[in-house]
Amino acid sequence: MTSALYALSSGSRRVTNAVAVKPTNLLDCYGSARTSVWLVTRGAKAEMLIQLRNGGARHSLIAEEALPRSIRSLVDAAFAVVVEPGERTRLLPDAELRHVLGVEDRHDLFVGVQVVPEHERLILFRGDLRSLIVPFSAFRGDDSPAGHAAPDFEDVEVTDYGQTVRLGRYEASADALLYELDPEARRRQKQRQMQEDPSIGGAIRRLRTQRGLKRSDFPALAEKTLARIERGEVQPRAKTLQHIAARLKVRPDELASY
Amino acid sequence: MAFQLPLPEPLRRAQWKVKIRDKERAEPPHVSIMHKHRTWRFDLRSRRFLDKEPPPSDCSAEVLKAILAALPTLVAAWDDMYPHNPVGGTA
């Protein structure tokens, strides 16, 4: 695990793989050189956090329930990122949240989502509390089959232990969103695969299908030509690559990463 | 709407799920086998696991049996949701 996990818990609740934070070790945990995620469980005594001071750039915090208003500004000052449930922010159910925060690859799972309807964006919070900004347009395909559920941006949550984003009856995999939007996550996913066509043609095919496009959706390029490029039978010229990349909404130099 | 394969009660109680969601990694066509925070992708064309991690050996044999028994249904569901990249299409 690349970052530590600290937990302020109430009663006898323990969080797997977390260092339990108490008033007696609070400052030692905060002073640790490691970057960390702090979890404040429901009912925990969050007020102890007012003892913290400066130097919190390494630490992020997530709370299962809204933090007391009286300490919120101090917590904001002590932590680089603070995530709590609210009117526009929903977190995983408590048990799933605690499980996800305790796993090795939590950075590729989502623990919460905030909707920003004015700007047609979602902010997805990953298990290490980094954010992934996703435009609403990422969930709508140009050719969504008729009769299929459209994403409902007024009913959004993360489910399946952080592996699914649910928008009404529409579901998106965390995997697919990270593949499209995070080059580092995409690289990790490709490393996990058994085998994959490493050619530029293979990358074009994967990204074309990911965008929901058919070969006929490239007006300046014959379908047969694109098919031959995808099968590796011909190498595309620079101008052709530019056209393909533009249609797929990436830079030409990004194509090979898919 | 996501397609979810009905599984026997013991597997459901153990929190296994098999889904094709509205937005997946579209190539190659596959089903997602989910258990808590882990997902295995099972290729509908080759009938093999797509990834080294999580180890395919960790996936429930009973879940795999249910998938193989329901392959025509799963293929139809994928083709319905991803008509631009059907299971039977050329890769």
Structure description:
The complex is a heterodimer of chains A (258) and B (91). By secondary structure, chain A is of the alpha/beta class. Chain A has 8 helices and 12 strands. Chain A has helices at residues 26-30, 69-78, 94-101, 174-181, 183-192, 200-210, 223-230, 238-248, and strands at 4-8, 19-20, 36-40, 59-63, 81-83, 89-91, 110-116, 121-126, 131-135, 156-159, 164-167, 170-173. In chain A, strands 2-1-3-4-5 form a 5-stranded parallel beta sheet, covered by helices on one side. The mean pLDDT of chain A is 91. By secondary structure, chain B is an alpha+beta fold. Chain B has helices at residues 9-13, 61-69, 71-81, and strands spanning 3-4, 16-20, 30-35, 38-43. In chain B, strand 3 and strand 4 form a beta hairpin.
| Class per helix and strand makeup of chain A | alpha/beta
As a percent range, the share of helical residues of chain B equals 25-40%
Spatial strand arrangement across the major sheet of chain A? 2-1-3-4-5
By DSSP (H or I, 4+ residues per run), the number of helices of chain A equals: 8
Tell me the total number of β-strands of chain A. Answer: 12
Give a count of the beta strands of chain B, DSSP E runs of length 2 or more.
4
Rg over CA atoms of chain A:
22 Å
Q: What's the number of helices of chain B?
A: 3
Summed over residues and divided by their number, the pLDDT of chain B gives a mean of 94
Strand content of chain A: 15-25%
Largest sheet of chain A: 5 strands, parallel
Terminus-to-terminus distance of chain B: 25 Å
Structure class of chain B: alpha+beta
Approximately what portion of the residues of chain B adopt beta-strand conformation? 15-25%
Largest interface: A-B, 38 and 30 residues
Helix content of chain A: 25-40%
The side-by-side strand order for the widest beta sheet of chain B comes to: 1-2-3-4
Order of helices and strands of chain B: EHEEEHH
